[in-house]
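Lab notebook, bench 4. The sequencing result for the construct came back, and we need a structural model before the next group meeting so we can plan mutations. Quick request posted to the team channel:

Model the 3D structure of this chain.
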Amino acid sequence: MVEFNTGAFINALVFALTGIVLFCLSFAILDKLTPYDLWKEIVEGKNTALAILIGCMSLGMCVIIAAAVH
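Done. Here's the predicted structure in token form:
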């Protein structure tokens, strides 16, 4: 039977929350650097190309953050 390791669970939780916070912060910075509101342009303007670009950039940021945190 495998024992539950509380320390490993807490570490995983802390690193996951750190990654999420860093991702949200980096997305907010990216949104501030662009000359228009990204969310408004994607949702109201139905700009599919921008949505794909932001999605790819988000995945790239997540991979970098995950590698740094791991």
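The first helix runs from residue 6 to 33.
Will bring this to the meeting.
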